[in-house]
Amino acid sequence: MLSIPGDDPRTPDVQVGPVDLAERVDEALAVQALAFGLSDEEIAVRRHIVLRHLMYPGCRAYGATTGSGRLVAFVYGLPNDRAHWWSTIVEPYLRTTGSDGWLDNSFVITELHVHPEFQARGIGRALITTITDGAAQPRSILSAIDTESPARRLYRSLGYEDLARQVHFPSAPRPYAVMGAPLPLRRAR
Question: 179: exposed, middle or buried (C-beta count within 10 Å: 0-12, 13-18, 19+)?
Fold first, then answer.
């Protein structure tokens, strides 16, 4: 377990460690809904997706919890498989940039979300470095909304680089960027 101290009484200390995401899926999706702005309908769809992903071989999840046990952030990921839906969507974009080899032997960060009240404290960094440190693959890939954002800055600081931009997922209102980084991820200097 990794402890991250709170910076004021409203944001208590949190512990980062493995989490049973299947057991806490509704708590995790509540965090994602706040951090990502999801509707109730989108949450219901994502619930089924998360539970399906958790059954894939090698899928792992970590969470950040307060002393009272409240889940305030989570990450999960798995070894990439070109047959997975996400890979089939991003592969043509990666092929266009000559980066489709990144789909092989990579660990995918499927979701990473931090409750807005707990953002900018290093929790996201701790979650992504912890989960990738345990990956057997030599590199990691992920997708993020293709705008300049704190999330994209975090990923770049860890060594992720754009592999493809303006990637369009069905039913997603905004385009995404696919990013990749060698493992282990870069640490702050």
Answer: buried
